[in-house]
Amino acid sequence: MEHLRAACALALMLTFGCIRVMCTNSTYKTMLNVDLLNGYDPVVHPGKQYQSQVLNINVSFALRKIQIFNELTSEFSITGALSVYWDDERLSWDPTRYSNLIITHLKQKSIWTPPLLLSNGYDDIDLIGKGDMHIMITSSGMVSWLLPVKLTITCDADVRYYPFDKQSCLVILLPWGYNADLVQINAMASTLNTAQYEENPIWSLVSTFQASSVAPAAVGLLFSITFKRKPEFFVMNFLLPTMLMCFMNMFVFLLPAESGERVGFCITVLLSIAVFLSIVSSALPQTSSPQMAMFCYLLVVHVILSLLIMICTIVGLRFYFRSEEVEVPRRIARLAQFVNNIRKTNQNRTSVSPGSQSNITVKAKTDSDDVQLNEEKRDVTDTDVSWKEVSAALDKTCFVVFMATAMTCNISFIIVLMRS
Q: Which of 53, 223, 251, 289 is most buried, judging by how many CB atoms fall within 10 Å of its CB?
């Protein structure tokens, strides 16, 4: 029984002792805060000699995430933590007078804070921070202002190499109402702190830059964020289908003319490319500065090729279904024979295999052979060419020419994008 009473007494002593220590600390901290704010004017900025001493404000920014970048409205929004440090001699104290307290906290509205303003803000212009936010102060007078912020600025997009474009946005923080003779903003590092950065599903962070403004009339902090687009979605859903449709359009010349589907095939592909052009145009800013997207130029080239292919298809069908009673002009006949003979010559070359065991007889050339050869050439030249053969020659020529043009345009576009 006596042991139980002793244990209870000891527990009560420890409890009251802890409460007394806590009360003592909270009491001293209350006294400290009251003494610090006694006669303190939050409008007056720190400094003992304004004429010969400049208030140094050290600033750093920890980037958390790229929230949004809208190319149409030029809206760029990021979240992070802004750290601001400066010395205020009016907020220093002797720790021995306040139970060795070396740290205290005051509300932002109770003391002077640099009126940081987002110079190129997208929304309404307002100062950063809230009045009820707590600020940590050490006994030496060092003020630590740590505040989470969401910065929304105006940043014009450069979509020249869309969807492989790279963007760079500049954030400008200014101490509104103060010039270089009163305060100096110092960047604590040359780059932003990205230790806790979270990846954006559309944009990938490339690099960051942070520096102080050296202009006498515009003292402040500048930091730049460079990021590039993740192109996989746009390549699979826009770029690759348009290129495939462009090459697919060439095979209209391989369709039989009797099928009656040539013109319908051309119109379908042309409308598909036009739909992709409208979709891409709606997703890009409606401006030509600094330059329009090269992808739009590629789509325009595809549209022009489709129009030319449709015109050539219609002309070829007119040749094919023209009456044989109409004589083919000699120049057109010679061109058709030239194209068809090239194909026949290539087929004859490929038909002879290197391992063939055919017997070759060498025969001396005579004058009668030359006369016979000239007569055969004259017969071939004077042979009548049908309109169907002219249509076939036109199809072969258009297929080769348009295929080479499409390959040149698309490969050049890809090379330019990859070099960017």
A: 223
Given a contact cutoff of 8 angstroms between Cβ atoms, the answer to whether 80 and 106 are in contact is no
Does residue 283 share a domain with residue 196? no
Q: How many domains does the chain contain in total? A: 2
**With contact defined as beta carbons under 8 Å apart, do 88 and 111 qualify?**
yes
List the domain range (segments joined by +) for residue 159. 55-230
Contact 290, 296 (CB under 8 A): no
Residue 218 has pLDDT above 80, yes or no: no
The pTM assigned to this predicted structure is: 0.72
Q: Are 392 and 319 in contact (CB under 8 A)?
A: no
Give the Cα separation of 162 and 416 in Å (integer).
11
Residue with token string 């005051």: 106
DSSP secondary structure string for all residues of 58-85: EEEEEEEEEEEEETTTTEEEEEEEEEEE
Residue with tokens 């001493």: 53
Q: Pick from 176, 201, 230: which residue ends a domain?
A: 230
Work out the average pLDDT over 42-62: 84
Other C-beta atoms lying within 10 Å of the C-beta of residue 89: 10
Q: For the sheet with 183-187, list strands across it.
A: 103-107, 134-138, 142-154, 75-87, 55-70, 183-187
Angle at 40 between CA 34 and CA 43, to 5 degrees: 140
Q: What is the pLDDT of residue 405?
A: 92
Task: Residue 330: give its domain's CATH number.
Answer: 1.20.58.390
Inter-residue contact 213 to 220 (CB < 8 Å): yes
Instruction: Answer whether 93's CB lies under 8 Å from 36's CB.
Output: yes
